[in-house]
Amino acid sequence: MANKEYSFYPGCSSQKGASASNLQTSVKAVCDTLGIQLNDIPDWNCCAASIGYAEGGELPRLALSARNIAISEKEHPNQDIVATCAACWLATRETRERLEENAEIKKEVNEALGTVGLSVEANKKVRHMVEVLIEDIGYDEIKKHVKKPLSGVKIAGYVGCQTNRPFGIDGESFENPQYMDKFAEALGAEPITNYEKKVQCCGGALIFSEPEKSHAMIKDIIESAYDHGADMIATPCPVCQMNVEIYQGKINEKYNTNLNMPVIYYSTMMAVAFGKSAKEAALNGQVIKAEKLDKIAG
Question: Could you tell me the residue ranges of all domains in the chain?
Answer without folding.
Answer: 4-129, 138-297
